[in-house]
Amino acid sequence: MFFVRSASSRDIPAIRDVLAETWRATYAPFYGAARVEEIIADWHSEAAIKAYMERPNGEFLVADDGKQIGGVAFASHAPGTHVVSLHQLYVRPACQGLGIGRDLFAEIETCFPGAQTLSLEVDPGNEPAIAFYQSHGMTETGRTDNCGKGESGIPAVIMTKPLLG
Known about the structure:
- The protein has 165 residues and is α+β, with helices and mostly antiparallel strands.
- The chain is built from five helices and seven strands; from the N terminus they run βαααβββαβαββ.
């Protein structure tokens, strides 16, 4: 059984493993192995994960069964707004279907009192993720040609959900 908890610095190597494993399984068919490895090295390095953990107005969660980290989620609240951005929600491929994504998503929704909107970006080809988010009340509200950091050149569907705030 997995339990959702706040991540700590001791989790960084395991978090990186989850992110790398999930990205390889999910995105190599879209972008090719070499591009996925570039993204993992940039977006999911131990330094990047540490920076996320230290980010003001952010919450980094893990799903832990005492033996392994089965999933991760990171969201942040933009100061001066009522918007929370879900930057990462990944479940280790071998752990998918166990309710980890649902539990991480539900916890993120409660981490930011006063927030009114949850927003995220997801690759338009990642149909399982889009279906997951739709089943949790998210709807498409736009598109971008630069998902994630900077000028990535990676297209994304922008999805949002009102929160009870």
